[in-house]
């Protein structure tokens, strides 16, 4: 484009022609840059959406590996439905509640009220600031993740009907409200607001330690409590069977890979004509790596020291990786590399404490979703309030308030930490109350737990046409 403009201007023979050429070329250049920015942003968001969506494969393998083999099909269909139900609900209601510009007033908004069914959303960009279809795709992948967190915690005993209900409500309403609070430019807690920010900083939750992971984990905690533990889960001397640490490890490593899209692509662009975001994206991926690694090693060390036989446990390593990833998700763009390692190390202690908390209360969380996504989600939101540096905050957010909103160990005055604490409390209350009403409503109507015989025999036999592995060939169903 610019080469053609230059060639055209070289053909000018008079001063008037040259002036006219320059005017035309400046307009053409502005158009070219605008098109470049749009294409660049859309590609980056779509690339990120693919990586984040691939995390569904990771969750599926992780959960299959951690449940009894007799419930394999059941957990797989739930993961497939998380993505499918999530897509329809996010298209119909979720995007409108979360990302639209509220028509009822923009000051400290709590929920969006426009753009339902993607009405008014462009394939490229929206001049009103309501996003593009590429942004919708990226955010749908996040919404599916929040729903999947719940399915693992209540696996092997929740009814399919209850699962459908909570998946629909969580993706359509509960989670979108949290997104609006934390990420919408008009949300009451958002750091992206132009004025009247919470404690003059807003919540620093770059990729969703609180918005996504804590939200899903609180719903998972409520669900696990209402549904109750699996048969024999807290009987002394009984250890419930786990299908395969191979699947669990495969799922964990897939999730680690997908997290580079989850955190890295949350820059929402890789570079524009007005600024280069590739450095910020690269930084988030480095801090993501360091936190996952340090948390993995620390978790294995802690659990080995706590075990009678000093076992080096692959299960602890896997959940340690995930705990480190969740712990860094909020601050991945705003903390330095040394802090990412510290965040991962401290995250390991939060994870172990979360496991002990659930054991003490006898709450059965099959995959450890609450310690990983809940306890480490809380820590993840707190961490940038302690460790965010002025330099990295300036690169990822706004330089004008970087000195004030840095972490308290990096010279900040505590304003960002205060905003983050308020946001944590708000998410726990909102999701806790709505999820309690949801699961208790299901318990009093359609039921939340399968019959004893179904649980003992496994849901694959009773609900999904038989065991996933059979000694005799299963006849192919004709279509």
TrEMBL record:
Transmembrane segments annotated in the record for this chain: 43-64, 76-93, 136-155, 162-183, 203-224, 245-262, 282-304, 311-332, 338-358, 370-388, 417-440
Membrane topology of the entry: Multi-pass membrane protein
One GO CC term, this protein: plasma membrane
Keyword entries, A-Z: Ammonia transport, Membrane, Transmembrane, Transmembrane helix, Transport
Subcellular location: Cell membrane; Membrane
Location (main, coarse): membrane
InterPro entries named in the record: Ammonium/urea_transptr (IPR029020), Ammonium_transpt (IPR001905), NH4_transpt_AmtB-like_dom (IPR024041)
GO biological process: ammonium homeostasis
Pfam families: Ammonium_transp
GO molecular function, one term: ammonium channel activity
This protein's record includes keyword Acyltransferase: no
Ammonium transporter AmtB-like domain mapped to chain residues: 44-467
Family listed: Belongs to the ammonia transporter channel (TC 1.A.11.2) family.
PANTHER family linked to this entry: AMMONIUM TRANSPORTER
Record protein name field: Ammonium transporter
Species lineage: Eukaryota, Sar, Stramenopiles, Ochrophyta, Bolidophyceae
């Amino acid at each position: 484009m610019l080469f053609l403009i230059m060639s055209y201007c070289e053909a000018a023979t008079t001063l008037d022609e040259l002036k006219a050429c320059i005017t035309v070329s400046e307009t053409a250049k502005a158009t070219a840059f605008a098109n470049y920015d749009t294409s660049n942003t859309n590609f980056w968001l779509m690339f990120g959406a693919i990586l984040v969506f691939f995390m569904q494969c990771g969750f599926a393998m992780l959960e299959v590996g951690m449940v009894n083999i007799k419930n394999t099909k059941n957990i797989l269909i739930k993961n497939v439905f998380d993505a499918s139900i999530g897509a329809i609900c996010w298209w119909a209601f979720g995007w409108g509640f979360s990302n639209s510009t509220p028509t009822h007033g923009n000051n400290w908004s709590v929920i969006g009220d426009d753009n339902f069914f993607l009405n008014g959303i462009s394939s490229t960009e929206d001049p009103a600031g309501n996003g593009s279809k590429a942004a919708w795709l990226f955010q749908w992948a996040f919404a599916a993740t929040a729903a999947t967190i719940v399915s693992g915690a209540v696996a092997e005993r929740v009814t399919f009907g209850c699962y459908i209900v909570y998946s629909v409500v969580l993706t359509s309403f509960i989670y979108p409200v949290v997104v609006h609070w934390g990420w919408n430019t008009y949300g009451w807690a958002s750091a992206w607001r132009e004025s009247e920010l919470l404690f003059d900083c807003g919540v620093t939750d770059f990729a969703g330690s609180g918005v996504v992971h804590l939200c899903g984990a609180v719903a998972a905690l409520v669900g696990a409590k209402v549904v109750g533990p699996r048969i024999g889960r807290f009987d002394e001397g009984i250890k419930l069977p786990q299908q395969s640490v191979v699947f669990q490890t495969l799922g964990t490593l897939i999730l680690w890979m997908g997290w580079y899209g989850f955190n890295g692509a949350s820059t929402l662009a890789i570079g524009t004509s007005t600024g280069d975001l590739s450095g910020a994206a690269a930084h988030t991926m480095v801090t993501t790596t360091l936190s996952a690694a340090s948390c993995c090693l620390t978790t294995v060390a802690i659990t080995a020291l706590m075990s009678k036989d000093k076992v080096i446990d692959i299960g602890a390593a896997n959940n340690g990786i995930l705990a480190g990833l969740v712990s860094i998700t909020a601050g991945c763009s705003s903390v330095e590399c040394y802090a990412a390692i510290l965040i991962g190390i401290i995250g390991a202690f939060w994870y172990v404490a979360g496991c002990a908390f659930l054991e003490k209360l006898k709450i059965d969380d099959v995959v450890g979703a609450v310690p990983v996504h809940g306890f480490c989600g809380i820590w993840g939101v707190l961490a940038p309030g302690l460790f965010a540096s002025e330099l990295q905050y300036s690169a990822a957010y706004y330089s004008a308030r970087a000195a004030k909103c840095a972490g308290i160990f990096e010279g900040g005055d505590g304003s960002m930490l205060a905003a983050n604490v308020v946001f944590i409390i708000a998410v726990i209350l909102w999701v806790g109350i709505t999820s309690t009403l949801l699961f208790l409503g299901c318990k009093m109507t359609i039921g939340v737990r399968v019959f004893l015989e179904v649980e003992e025999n496994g849901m694959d036999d009773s609900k999904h046409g038989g065991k996933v592995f059979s000694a005799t060939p299963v006849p192919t169903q004709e279509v």
